[in-house]
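To: structure desk
From: M.T.
Subject: fold request, one chain
Message: Could you run this one when you get a chance? Sequence is below, nothing fancy, just the single chain.
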Amino acid sequence: MFTREALRLNWRSVRPYLVFAVILFFASVVVGGASQGPVEWLDQVLRNVQTISRQAASSDNPEQALFTAILFNNVRSSLTAMYMGIMASIMPIVTLVVNGMMLGYMFGNIADAGHNVWPLIAKGILPHGVLEIPAFLLACAYGVRLGFSVVRGIFGSLIGRTQPWARFVLALKDTVPGAILIAALLLIAAGIESTVTYWLMT
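Reply: Done. Structure tokens follow.
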């Protein structure tokens, strides 16, 4: 599972799903940015994110509170998207679309208000996003792969294939090193977001 050859095969297997996740995510960013007028459910998602930030900022140690909140939320969301992918890949696909649209919608609102979004991206997204976004996309890619392997296993069983669930078992095993890598990336990203990004934005 953790040998060099096993990790190489793991990456080769998940790579097509990662490409799919990247395309779907950034297409959702474009759709969210192109939304005309207020979108209630996206406004609610943004309000939830702002609530977490405000609660952390009002604590005695805002950096530590922000680190804990960000890490817990990101790890929980990513691993949920990964392992709930077992239900026909629905959860990771929905997660990609919602998060992409939320990001695009936020940027679109800022631009519509006459502000330059590039400083926000450079200071508020880029420092931690170079690790956080790839980790999120990788988690969703593993989730989509897991869901596809379940569908293949079901159809393979129905038509009487030999070892129809072999791909599912392999996909499930491959999530273990994937989850470790994702958690490590999110740990570093949370540290950057609660210090560097927090300092730049304040």
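Reply (cont.): Residues 117-158 form the longest helix (42 residues). Let me know if you need anything else for the meeting.
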